[in-house]
């Protein structure tokens, strides 16, 4: 799976798994199944109200199109209000982000939505699929225009396992000062670190690192995320038999 690597100004490195083509297609299919269901429901509702039997077909068409507007704007509105995700993307656990890994703006979501007319609908998706396959960051034309890409959020689910992957019988504790921490402290540290990692927010990582330096009274010669990772491993190794 292709990855998107980001280095922050503080030299904290975050790595994303780019969403696969298959997951994006399935998410798209789910979303447009929802839209089609909504359109059918609206048609049925308008029919039940007897509007199709009126003498003014323009009035009927106008009312029908007005009620369909939410479906027309569905991708743009969902991504704007749900942090880059539609229902299909939520189910497939993928999301739209800026190419630097941060949250996209409303303008960028709008550009993606407008460009979908060209790279998805006018050519039956062929242009969009070709662009996703050919570009380094798996971007369709809309992503290129908006400077965005689509990442998988599944990798974040495995963070807890990766934290302890290197704890073996031969593991050496780097900071014995972790004895000062309680189980509650360790769990809070792990949760905050996980939140910072998931949000790709290095300010959270830095704040947590600085707090641990103060609390443990140590001077780590490593990057903030490495220091936090070692502290968590040290704690769980120290109290592994408790």
Automatic annotation (TrEMBL):
Keywords: Membrane, Transmembrane, Transmembrane helix
Domain of life: Bacteria
Segments passing through the bilayer: 25-46, 58-77, 110-134
Stretches assigned to the RDD domain: 18-146
InterPro entries: RDD
Protein location: Membrane
Topological category with respect to the lipid bilayer: Multi-pass membrane protein
Pfam family for this entry, one: RDD
PANTHER family: SLR0254 PROTEIN (PTHR38480)
Descriptive protein name: RDD family protein
Organism: Sphingobacterium micropteri
């Amino acid at each position: 799976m292709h990855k998107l690597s980001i280095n922050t100004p503080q030299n904290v490195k975050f790595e994303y798994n780019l969403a696969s083509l298959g997951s994006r297609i399935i998410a798209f299919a789910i979303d447009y199944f929802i839209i089609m269901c909504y359109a059918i429901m609206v048609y049925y509702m308008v029919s039940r109200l007897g509007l199709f039997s009126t003498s003014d077909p323009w009035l009927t068409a106008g009312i029908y199109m007005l009620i369909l507007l939410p479906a027309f704007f569905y991708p743009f509105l969902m991504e704007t209000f749900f942090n880059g995700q539609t229902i299909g993307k939520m189910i497939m656990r993928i999301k739209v982000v800026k190419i630097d890994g941060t949250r996209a703006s409303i303008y960028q979501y709008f550009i993606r939505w407008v460009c979908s007319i060209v790279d998805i609908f006018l050519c039956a998706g062929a242009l969009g699929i070709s662009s996703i396959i050919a570009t380094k960051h798996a971007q369709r034309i809309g992503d290129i225009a908006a400077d965005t890409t689509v990442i998988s959020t599944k990798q974040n689910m495995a963070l807890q396992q990766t934290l302890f992957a290197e704890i073996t019988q031969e593991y050496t504790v780097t900071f014995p000062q972790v004895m000062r921490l309680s189980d509650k402290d360790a769990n809070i540290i792990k949760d905050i670190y996980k939140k910072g990692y998931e949000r790709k927010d290095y300010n959270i990582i830095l704040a947590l690192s600085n707090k641990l330096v103060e609390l443990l009274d140590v001077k780590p010669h490593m990057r903030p995320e490495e220091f936090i990772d070692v502290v968590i491993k040290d704690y769980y190794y120290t109290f592994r038999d408790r």
